[in-house]
Description:
Two copies of one chain form a homodimer. By secondary structure, chain A is mainly alpha-helical.
Amino acid sequence: MASRAHPVDGDLSPATDGGDLPIKSSPHRHKVGIPPKQNMFHDFMYTFKETFFHDDPLRHFKDQPKSKQFMLGLQSVFPVFDWGRSYNLKKFRGDLIAGLTIASLCIPQDIGYAKLANLDPKYGLYSSFVPPLVYACMGSSRDIAIGPVAVVSLLLGTLLRAEIDPNTNPDEYLRLAFTATFFAGVTEAALGFFRLGFLIDFLSHAAVVGFMGGAAITIALQQLKGFLGIKQFTKKTDIIAVLDSVFSSARHGWNWQTILIGASFLTFLLTSKLIGKKNKKLFWIPAVAPLISVIISTFFVYITRADKQGVQIVKHLDKGINPSSFDQIYFSGDNLAKGIRIGVEAVAIGRTFAAMKDYQIDGNKEMVALGVMNVVGSMSSCYVATGSFSRSAVNFMAGCQTAVSNIIMSIVVLLTLLFLTPLFKYTPNAILAAIIINAVVPLIDIQAAILIFKVDKLDFIACMGAFFGVIFVSVEIGLLIAVSISFAKILLQVTRPRTAVLGNIPRTSVYRNIQQYPEATMVPGVLTIRVDSAIYFSNSNYVRERIQRWLLEEEEKVKAASLPRIQFLIIEMSPVTDIDTSGIHALEDLYKSLQKRDIQLVLANPGPLVIGKLHLSHFADMLGHDNIFLTVADSVESYCP
Amino acid sequence: MASRAHPVDGDLSPATDGGDLPIKSSPHRHKVGIPPKQNMFHDFMYTFKETFFHDDPLRHFKDQPKSKQFMLGLQSVFPVFDWGRSYNLKKFRGDLIAGLTIASLCIPQDIGYAKLANLDPKYGLYSSFVPPLVYACMGSSRDIAIGPVAVVSLLLGTLLRAEIDPNTNPDEYLRLAFTATFFAGVTEAALGFFRLGFLIDFLSHAAVVGFMGGAAITIALQQLKGFLGIKQFTKKTDIIAVLDSVFSSARHGWNWQTILIGASFLTFLLTSKLIGKKNKKLFWIPAVAPLISVIISTFFVYITRADKQGVQIVKHLDKGINPSSFDQIYFSGDNLAKGIRIGVEAVAIGRTFAAMKDYQIDGNKEMVALGVMNVVGSMSSCYVATGSFSRSAVNFMAGCQTAVSNIIMSIVVLLTLLFLTPLFKYTPNAILAAIIINAVVPLIDIQAAILIFKVDKLDFIACMGAFFGVIFVSVEIGLLIAVSISFAKILLQVTRPRTAVLGNIPRTSVYRNIQQYPEATMVPGVLTIRVDSAIYFSNSNYVRERIQRWLLEEEEKVKAASLPRIQFLIIEMSPVTDIDTSGIHALEDLYKSLQKRDIQLVLANPGPLVIGKLHLSHFADMLGHDNIFLTVADSVESYCP
Lengths: 641, 641
């Protein structure tokens, strides 16, 4: 293995003498390397590439003939040209089964989710017909199942309702929904094309867990209307208003037949989910359970005419495929601005909660596909669709091979729209409510919350803040809390970097944080501090002040113990990847104030960018080139021979 | 020196054999320390302290009797009780000279600066009377000279004028100015008291240099009105509108007598500045030059009656000290909100450009002093005052000993207000213009801009963006550009941390960036990557993808050179100070994808927080505790013995 390697020795080998012998001076001290100067253009291009093309998406295009490049380009935009060529009957079998499974799952969900967005049930089905077809041509993941999802539907409904009342102005409301969907698509495509997707990755995992849990509970609470057969229901979403509405209607508004149907089928759904969880091979049981529930309950209501007993039913579901809606999109006026705003918000949220993040695919290319899909969708009566967590998992387990499973699902939805919608007439609303409750239960991720609690208490506070914000106030406030906390965390990270006092680990030349390694000992007369971040304007003053405080504290300790006074302050710069002019000023200030107290400032292992800038700004000259070392050990060795 | 120290050896000692001998296994491998568990409260308090009390302001209060603590507290809020007790005649001599010097400098400046804020000249003088008195009791710096400053006056004028026209509504304008000053003070005091000053340190040094340069040119251009004796002048501040206004008035609007007076005294002022720069001992020449200019020019106009020739003069300056203005502050209505907004903006800018930043004093305590001073000021007809860069420097050089120099200045201003204002009647406006031009010239810091250009090209673009934004559009747009660029930089820092491939520096056990140290060699079969930032939700995906790209590139190289395939991927975690659940997920994903390709993931030197979290989340178990090492050298040694 190590035949070509230079020897890696000495680091942890025992000292020749365990104790107090003076340290021998190294015959060849290594200089801190100054990287070759780059010109401005090269510098800029490097930063540009690392920022926007860190995954080197054009890698495959290098050194290829023109015709091949064209083919690769086509395949890159339409992956169907890639996997389509090797498609065969065996793959189709897998896709067919997976497609049928997710279709059986999505049809009842779609009808319910459309209601969360305050839209007619048919728009849910529409949105599971056109977008999956577009995605099948352009998307690069084979597992992802496309369609409306619960959280985005709820958020879109909340945002749209804030602008237009869906009950008094249903037509305008619908037009605004299409407008928002159109601009959601445009935003996604633009962010993806310009590789700016990372700009909207601004929610911390903890905030997402909290928000999702809160949204799930909010969605489940909204289902109590259908589940309990309540006629008068609040339009607010906070838990207090909803429970108040539920209990105040308890005397006359509940319908026991509805509750009976809803409760028994919810039990059935939850049981089947449990079975699927226990035995991964039986994943198809929870997958088909919703459709079975719909069929049985519809048939049951039809023969018992339970709707005459007050059991609310779907009543009417339009037949026929998506009508064109291009002329419905607002391209001018007030509603244009509203549509853009809501669309952009929906994208930001949709992206954060989308299933894509867990797949190792090119996020930016994926966003272009989703964007085109929503633009096309908005012109064919669909509202915002994205990748669904739960259905994607089922798709994968059902053995999908390619995006054809989305096409199969799309065809099933098409057939449903063409022929089967009248059959939904007697489907009780309670069943749809039960299906949605069942679908959002996994969003309440208690395991994740426990892990967050264990790993980071501050993160847990963020998680709970978002959670309670959603359930006690509103979805938007919950989101605002989640975003604010995430930003506050970024701000803290940037303005308050960590610093640590280092000590020498016995019998090595390694210097480590003395809090982590209590056995590490400090060299008398020397204080070694590691700064754990780039030094920028945002933290340069803090870093300087914190270092001075470490020094002050150490000096007090040294004085109390009558040890030799501190003569050298070594800053271990390994983690300091960059420095700006403010940072250099802070070092200058520190150097000057130390000089007054006769303490020598020493830098250990400044990185390539830092050493370059220290030279350019002449701070290296001010400090003295002899006071910049490759390692902490090296500098200690130089000063305390 | 090193008598108590453990030996620091081996690190750079030559290998026993220069070349290909297998590396000997170390008999005692150090474990990665896991810090003792902290409870939630302790954890929270530590973070809280490091965030808000990193400078340990209560240090002096520890272990003191109650009475002493009270005294210390009093001295902390009113430092005058501290330095006042040892005040003596010798110190007073220094303060007297310094106070007289800065008074002679500030009086003509004040009159001009008030005009930048679209206020009567007397408000400039008012603001140099009350605020310095308050500061003298509460401020902790002895050098800082208090009063109106050019950039804040310009910005306040711009913000106020956007709300109320000072020509048609002078009374309301004045009231809004007091309201903004009041809330500027309240904001300062609150931020200081809650130790949140760092929240508004959001402008990078480069952006500040650009903004200041642009503001200086904008201020100088505004002075052309007085300097050239133009009667009709544009109200816009951008260079094109101003120059257009200047040249279109050239035929009939300029007054040669005015130009003659202005130009000769500007030459005098600039020459005296040059003399002061060449010989630091003659600093008093530029300090008294403005007052001398005022006296001579006023006398000259008085005897020649040049004002009859079209030379514009001050004409009228109210006699008497600051009237109360408490009842003028808006505490309700629309103007309250406007006043708050403008006040907060003025603070944010004032703080960024304040002289305080360069002094090593407690920034938060200082903000409380400034805040109280502006609150009191707003009630006594003053507008926003702060520490002046240029006058503080003069104060220092004139030998000020304590804040008494501010009191002396204040008394001189008081005497001026009481007795000397009528003398300003014949002062030509051209002189005030020349004094202001002379005062803002040092704000154009070409040296700093050149340094920024040399050190960081991207920073230079930020600097120029702010500069051209101010001079070509407006002060607010320039500020917006400066803030946006600064934020973008923070965002980049957080979302795109650096990573580096490490190699072994020959004859050492040190691993360093191979780009910085071309002599560093990579160990065959091993790829070592250092991640240079905490791994959080904001960058976890990027870090994972970037590591995978390094691996891919390295594998291609290895393949091309027919070297042994890569079996170990070592991540040097020293700079990774923290990790959150998203970051742990990213490591898990990386581990799994490497496992599929039969590559072992190895971690080197995770810090105290990171190792604790890796254990709690069971990632350490998944990875295997044997795959976490203290150093890179240690892990290479283990795998390639």
